[in-house]
Write a structure and sequence with these properties.
The chain has about 190 residues and is mostly helical. It has helices at about 1-5, 20-30, 40-45, 90-100, 100-110, 125-130, 135-140, 150-170, 175-190; strands at about 75, 145.
């Protein structure tokens, strides 16, 4: 990762310090980047009338080594019913409504949301407006949910702190990786009881 910034200069030097999701999207949308890793909502913005990349981009699965496979992170919204709810029947009716083919298609066409139903990805009206949904279906079918760990936040904070130090050049790679390992072990020992 560090070489992509310093040696090969593929990534801008401020990638890990300043470029958050929207900054990355805008940088790409202005035509200043070869590729962007983002959530599907960005497509509609990239296709806006004033976008320099309108009709010039596509979507692909994430790259992988020959021995591996492409895997994306599964994100989204979830619907549940509290066991304490006094409106369980109404909640069930709402779930049926919002996950129906008609409403899933409407939410996709009008808001660009990713449908929960597989069949919507190949709907002719959807593909006419959002042609990348053909590829997106494959991406979602091979996606994995984020790690389901009760201490995911603590792990993420450790990785962010020490890997960013390596990327910034304030810590040597070997020392940063060793510190990351030590701190992750402490997180596991503290929270995995």
């Amino acid at each position: 990762m560090k070489d992509l910034i310093t040696k090969y200069q593929i990534s801008p030097p401020n990638t890990f310090t300043e470029m958050k999701e929207e900054e990355v999207r805008m940088f790409f949308q202005q035509g200043n980047a070869l590729f962007e890793r983002n959530w599907p909502y960005a497509w509609e913005l990239h296709q806006s009338e004033d976008s320099p990349v309108k009709n010039k981009i596509g979507i692909s699965s994430l790259p992988h080594f020959n021995s591996g496979k492409s895997v994306s992170t599964l994100g989204g919204w979830h619907i549940g019913i509290s066991k304490y709810s006094d409106a369980k029947l109404q909640a069930m009716e709402f779930i049926g409504f919002v996950t129906s083919a008609r409403i899933q298609k409407k939410l996709t066409l009008e808001l660009g949301w990713n449908p929960a139903r597989k069949d919507i990805y190949l709907d002719k009206d959807i593909l006419q407006k959002l042609p990348y949904f053909r590829e997106l279906r494959d991406v979602f079918e091979n996606a994995y949910p984020r790690p389901n760990l009760p201490f995911y936040t603590q792990i993420s904070e450790v990785i962010q702190k020490y890997i960013n130090s390596v990327l910034a050049g304030t810590v040597e790679i070997s020392k940063g990786l060793k510190e990351t390992d030590v701190k992750l072990q402490k997180v596991v020992e503290t929270y995995d009881k």
